[in-house]
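Chapter summary example: a protein plus NAP.
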Amino acid sequence: MPTTNTTTSTTTPEPKNAAAWLTAPKTRPFRVAEAPMPVAGPDEVVVRTRAVALNPVDWYIQAMGIIVPAEGYPAVIGCDLAGDVISVGANATATFAPGDRVCGLAGTRGAGANHKSGAFQLYTKVDRAVLAKIPVSVSYAQAAVLPLGLSTAATAMFQKEAMALPLPVIGSTATTAVDAAGKKKVLLVWGGRTSVGSCAIQLAVAAGFDVATTASARNHAYCRSLGAAWAFDYRNPAIEDDIVAALKGRECVGVLDAWSRGSVAQCARVLLKLDENGSVGGGRKWVQTVMPSADMVDEEVPKGVEVGYAYGSTLANNEVGPATWGKWVPEALATGALQCKPDPEVVAQGLDGIQTACDTGAKDWGASSSPKLVVEIV
Ligand SMILES: NC(=O)c1ccc[n+]([C@@H]2O[C@H](COP(=O)([O-])OP(=O)(O)OC[C@H]3O[C@@H](n4cnc5c(N)ncnc54)[C@H](OP(=O)(O)O)[C@@H]3O)[C@@H](O)[C@H]2O)c1
């Protein structure tokens, strides 16, 4: 039999990156085109994106031209991603390896400096301080709902210049949040059904607090399933007195206003009433917003209450990133102490679908039970 000498090439083609580019301020649609292949810096990890979630900031950047400076265009935006690790910077090899399934917050610190490292691309470099492995039981679409919500909640709750609460502990063994009578202190999370609030409830429970929250009545069971002990309807005119009555005899460490759009003054009033009720203990009266600065809170806040501000990505620069993303998140995902909520709603596939998802999100944002929109990037 004649023999033929064939050679088979086993070389894998170099991966090529592509992004949904925001070409100029206030332009739509995103333009899907080639993008440079990211290279991991020492503290970075390159991830092949498999799912991205949408956040209000995405459609605000596109519609209003905020956050990205003129020199940042064309830009790649997007915060929330889940995917597979491709390459790992020298300082991240103890935690991450190629092939790991991860989720994380794109566009922070070094990785965010040029406004071309957002999540809306096939390959994204992510700071190791805001990245975590995900167990096989968690899908990419589920994991993608976490990054900005969790980061904003953690920044607001744990950073020293914000609420400075004790950090979460695996196994709910935290004992640092107990009052003089031996009862758990209480954190009020306003807006427990928001992405930020859903993570805040779970972080607060893990930090040892009892959680009171507000949501539409139909979401009270949802908030309780995340660990809230009390849920109140924010549309009920009697809500302030109802909260005060429920927390009689308990020490409230403050309010995390996870909505912060017209709700800050009300949170402050609740805190003042709790103080009259003897429920603020020796602590300060603190309403922690999720707005980056005072000029974004257009409300007359009653005197006697301090108001805090937070920018959701700053935890990458301090001890809160490693303590939450580095330590608590991977373990809590593995044990089920952290649920990926609100549930993802996959509305499109591929980078071409990001504009559709952005438009859908912008349309009814803030309506009751608004879904967490996800685009799968296969
Ligand atoms: N500082 C930062 O870096 C940063 C980062 C991310 C987000 N944020 C801000 O955080 C806030 C939440 O964002 P998100 O993405 O988490 O929101 P989201 O998940 O889109 O929130 C949707 C939910 O908001 C709830 N809601 C609407 N009006 C409310 C009110 N008056 N009181 C309480 N809850 C209300 C609704 O809950 P029901 O279904 O129960 O009615 C709705 O389901 C926004 O203001 C956003 O701009 C800030």
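Key point: The chain is about 25% helix and 20% strand.
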